[in-house]
Amino acid sequence: MADTVLGVTYKGGVVLATDQTNARSILTYQHNLDKIKELSSHSAMGVSGPNCDLVNFTEYIAKNIKLYELSHDGMKLSTHAQANFARSELAAALRKGPYQVNILLGGYDTKKEEASLYTLDYLGSLHKVDFGAQGYASYFCLSIMDRDFDENMTEKEAVAVVDHCIQEIQTRFLLSQPNFIIKVVDKDGVRVVRAGKDPADT
User: Fold this and answer.
1) Which residues pair with 116 in a beta bridge?
2) 3 state SS of 94
3) Mean pLDDT over all residues of the chain?
4) Are 201 and 40 in contact (CB under 8 A)?
5) How confident is the model at residue 24 (pLDDT cuts 50, 70, 90)?
6) Ordered DSSP codes for 111-152
7) With bands split at pLDDT 50, 70 and 90, how would you rate the model's confidence at 2?
8) Which pLDDT tens digit goes with each residue over 63-85?
9) Helix (H, G, I), strand (E, B), or coil: what is residue 62?
10) Which domains can be identified in the chain, with CATH numbers?
């Protein structure tokens, strides 16, 4: 719940953002963690939760999506299919060894030429949304997104909505989250818009 994941759709893409803090209990380990995992050339998931589950689950989903593509003559899974696969894996793990992760999964489907965003929680629920937030940040951000969201927004306007949310978090939230990474998924693929600290600098 202390992690922050934000997502906003706009006309032609999705903006995903997460804080870059890696912490446990009363300790902070790093401020440059990348919590947005690229699943395919045109999809990514922002994940909140313990670092071990975050890494294990995102790697597992990404590698299985790649395996599907290799096993089916290069056929790529749609964003909808990827979200449902992730949901089924979360649900299957519930009675074995649950992943303590909450997710925003965004992607751009080149065939349909449209972007979509899905929210998943650790219990295996799945919903398609226009915008979303995971963690305590949702208390600050959902009202901002609800007011500012417009389905015809440009990328610049969608990033501005996310920036507004980040500003509110850094002003109001009890916990310190000094760095955020923002990524965009559109027809050109997944790219980094801005990062508070370089994730490669470890």
Assistant:
1) 107
2) coil
3) 94
4) no
5) confident
6) TTTEEEEEEE-TT--EEEESEEEESTTHHHHHHHHHHH--TT
7) confident
8) 999 999 999 998 999 999 999 99
9) helix
10) 5-195 (3.60.20.10)
114 alpha carbon, distance to own chain's centre:
18
Tens of pLDDT, residue by residue over 124-181, are: 999 999 999 999 989 999 999 999 999 999 999 999 999 999 999 999 999 889 999 9
Written as six digits, the tokens of 16 are: 């995903």
Fill in the amino acid letter for 183.
K
The DSSP bridge partners found for residue 158 are: none
**For residue 48, what are its two tokens?**
């909140």
Assess contact for 129 and 117: CB atoms under 8 A.
Answer: yes
For 176, the 3-state DSSP assignment is coil
Q: In whole angstroms, what is the distance from residue 56 CA to residue 157 CA?
A: 33
Residue 60 DSSP class: H
Q: Residues with Cβ < 8 Å from 7, sequence gap 6 or more?
A: 14, 15, 16, 17, 46, 104, 106, 117, 119, 129, 131, 132, 133
Closest CA to 46 of 34, 58, 30, 35: 35
Taking the CA atoms of 17, 176, 173 and 23 in sequence, report the sign of the dihedral they define.
Answer: positive
Answer whether 90's CB lies under 8 Å from 82's CB.
no
